Amino acid sequence: xxxxxxxxxxxxxxxxxxxxxxxxxxxxxxxxxxxxxxxxxxxxxxxxxxxxxxxxxxxxxxxxxxxxxxxxxxxxxxxxxxxxxxxxxxxxx
Length: 93
Hints:
Shape: globular
Mean pLDDT: 83
Order of helices and strands: EHEEEEE
Helix content: under 10%
Strand content: 25-35%
Protein name: Grass carp reovirus (GCRV)-induced gene 2p
Structural class: mainly beta
Distance between the termini: 20 Å
Radius of gyration: 13 Å
GO cellular component, one term: cytoplasm
């Protein structure tokens, strides 16, 4: 984790690895990858379908959700984050 809960991530997945973000399942002519600085705040791990906070995590004071890789939540098997407040995200490149 970076300073004060800040990560460098890449859009497409909320991955911290450019190579993984580049493999996001879009046709190559539609792909764009942004490098972001993200203040994740309080993070809720969602690692299975039917998790009690799957749709209500923000109501419970979480700022971000994180689905770990290969947890069964995403067909791609990649990890994914969801950040509630866009003001926590800064585009770097």
